[in-house]
Specification:
The protein is of the alpha+beta class and 258 residues long. The longest helix has 24 residues. Strands 3-2-1-4-7-6-5 form a 7-stranded mixed beta sheet, with helices on both faces. Helix 3 packs across helix 6, helix 4 crosses helix 7 and helix 5 crosses helix 7. Helices cover 41% and strands 12% of the residues. A hairpin with a 6-residue loop joins strand 1 and strand 2.
Length: 258
């Protein structure tokens, strides 16, 4: 590897495969979409994506850049040990590496892992009963949610086995007293899942603030939520809304594909 002084973001596209570049573009777009939705926490959360066709390598945000500043070429390529695999001069957040590397290593289908510290998400994560069955959005979350108890800032590898065990095969992951996380086979799917997760939490906080008795949704309806989701998205999952989301980004936060 050449020295960091040789790093030139204008040359990144020419140095990677077409598949990796597309993943970079989509991941940078996802960062900017998270910022656009107001789910970002300055520079302190992460979205990661596996390099297509390559084992044990993924992309993560350069630590210190705001989410609305993220570009395809600025993303950092690392392995599961946290080693940088390019000469990008930016550091990475060790807490982000611990959580995301554990999930990428354990789940073959975890092509994208999206983690937020949104205010409503953290508020619900601090509630003993977690997500409540009180909204249409909540039924999709409750059909596949797992919880992990808070152990402090995720800086040590010792936490990895417990993270993985608690997540299991679920796609919605509530980190108690900490935030929200989604796991998906594509970047658009991870974003769509987080949109639903965040919406369920926001609705819950507002409903609780109203002070009236809440109406629970029967478990039988929750049991059918996965099939209903397939129907309403025409089997496309997050890919249904993704092109429209990119058009919105092109109007409001252009430049992610650079």
């Amino acid at each position: 590897m050449n020295g960091v002084s040789d790093w030139d973001p204008r040359k990144v596209k020419a140095s990677v495969s077409a598949e990796e570049w597309q993943t970079r573009v989509d991941l940078a777009a996802c960062y900017r979409a998270v910022a656009m939705m107001g789910w970002d926490d300055l520079v302190f959360t992460h979205i990661t994506a596996k390099i297509p066709g390559v084992d044990n390598q993924f992309l993560i945000n350069p630590y210190g850049l705001m989410f609305e500043e993220m570009t395809a070429s600025s993303l950092v390529k690392i392995d599961l040990q946290g080693n940088k695999l390019d000469n990008n001069p930016h550091p990475i957040n060790p807490a982000g590496f611990v959580i995301h590397s554990a999930i990428h290593a354990a789940r073959e289908d975890a092509k994208c892992v999206l983690h937020t510290h949104s205010l409503n998400g953290v508020a619900v994560s601090a509630q003993k009963n977690g997500v409540l069955p009180i909204s249409q959005q909540s039924i999709f979350v409750l059909a596949g949610i797992a919880y992990h108890s808070y152990e402090g800032v995720a800086l040590v590898d010792d936490e990895k086995p417990r993270l993985v065990a608690d997540l299991g095969s679920k796609n919605f992951f509530m980190l108690r007293n900490h935030g929200l996380l989604t796991v998906a086979p594509t970047i658009p799917d991870a974003f769509q899942l987080m949109y639903t997760f965040e919406s369920a939490c926001t609705i819950q906080v507002r409903a609780q603030a109203g002070g009236s008795e809440l109406i629970p949704i029967p478990q039988a309806i929750i049991n059918g939520a996965v099939e209903q989701s397939r129907q309403v998205t025409k089997g496309l999952g997050g890919r249904l809304a993704w092109p429209g989301l990119l058009r919105r980004l092109d109007r409001r936060f252009p430049g992610y594909d650079q």
